[in-house]
Write a structure and sequence with these properties.
- It contains 5 helices and 4 strands, in the order ααβαββαβα.
- It has a 4-stranded mixed beta sheet with strand order 1-2-3-4, with helices on both faces.
- Strand 2 and strand 3 (111-118) form a beta hairpin.
- Helix content is 45%, strand content 17%.
- The radius of gyration is 26 Å and the shape is elongated.
- It has a domain at 49-161.
- Helix 2 (49-62) packs across helix 5 (155-161).
Length: 169
C-alpha cells in the first residue's frame, strides 16, 4: 500500500513539473505588442553627415590607442556610488544624456576621453544638457574635448588635440 501511495505521489509531482514546464513558453507568447496598434517604427540616422566625417577623422587620429564609439549614453560608462533616492536622483539627471564620441582604452575598457561636437546653432536646453555632461565627466576624471562642426580638422591636428601621437610612415 505504501509503495502505491509513494508511486502515485511521484507521478503527481512529475505531472505538475511537466505541466509547468510546458506552460512557461506559452506565457511568453501571450505578451502583447510593445507598441500600440497604429504605431509606426522606422530606423533613423544615428549621426549627421558632419559627425560621420568627424568620426572617421577621430578614428584615424586615435586608431592605435583608442576604440571609438559614438552616441554613448552617459550612464553606460560612469559608476554612481550612492544608494536610495540619491542614486535615483543622479540617474534621473543623466538618464537621457549621451556623448558624441567616447574614446575607450582597449586594455582597461574604460572611457578615457569624450569628444563633444559643438554646433553654433545649439540653444535652449542644450546648454543645460552640456553642463550636466561636463559635471559628470569632471567628477569621473574623464577628459573632455569639444570640436566645432563648422571647423575643418586634419588628422594630425585631431591627434594633437586628443593627445595622441601619430607615427610617421
Amino acid at each position: 500500500m505504501d509503495v502505491i501511495l509513494v508511486s502515485a505521489l511521484i507521478l503527481v509531482v512529475l505531472l505538475v513539473l511537466l505541466w509547468k514546464r510546458s506552460s512557461s513558453p506559452d506565457k511568453k507568447k501571450d505578451l502583447g505588442p510593445v507598441f500600440p496598434a497604429g504605431t509606426k517604427v522606422t530606423p533613423t540616422s544615428l549621426l549627421t553627415e558632419q559627425e560621420v566625417l568627424l568620426y572617421n577623422l577621430i578614428r584615424l587620429a586615435v586608431q592605435d590607442q583608442y576604440l571609438v564609439f559614438s552616441q554613448v549614453p552617459l550612464w553606460a560608462f560612469v559608476h554612481i556610488a550612492a544608494t536610495g533616492e540619491v542614486r535615483a536622483q543622479a540617474f534621473r539627471q543623466i538618464a537621457l544624456k549621451r556623448v558624441a564620441f567616447a574614446l575607450v582604452h582597449p586594455g582597461s575598457r574604460q572611457v578615457e576621453q569624450v569628444v563633444q561636437v559643438e554646433d553654433v546653432g545649439m540653444r535652449g536646453g542644450a546648454g543645460d544638457r552640456q553642463r550636466v555632461i561636463e559635471s559628470v565627466l569632471d567628477a569621473a576624471g574623464i577628459k573632455l574635448v569639444t570640436l566645432r562642426v563648422q571647423k575643418s580638422y586634419t588628422v594630425p591636428a585631431l591627434a594633437s588635440l586628443l593627445g595622441c601621437e601619430l607615427e610617421e610612415s
